[in-house]
Design a protein that fits this description.
By secondary structure, the protein is mainly α. 70% of the residues lie in helices and 0% in strands.
């Protein structure tokens, strides 16, 4: 089953990743990403852990490597 992700979810994770790389990730940003992952998984009927795994993979390896 292919995991579907929204552009909004990818944008949130991308912003969090940028903060993380700058050592500036806040609890608020991380909480927003986690809440969005949970809401997206519930709305689409996809396993939450799979949504998070695929989201991180796409943001960290956008060219498909990894």
């Amino acid at each position: 089953m292919a995991i579907e992700l929204s552009d909004e979810l990818i944008d949130l994770e991308s912003a969090a990743r940028a903060e993380q790389q700058a050592n500036a990730l806040t609890v608020d940003t991380a909480a927003r990403v986690q809440a969005a992952i949970t809401a997206h998984a519930a709305a689409t009927g996809q396993p939450r852990c799979e949504v998070e795994r695929e989201l991180k993979r796409r943001v960290r390896h956008p060219d498909g490597d990894g």
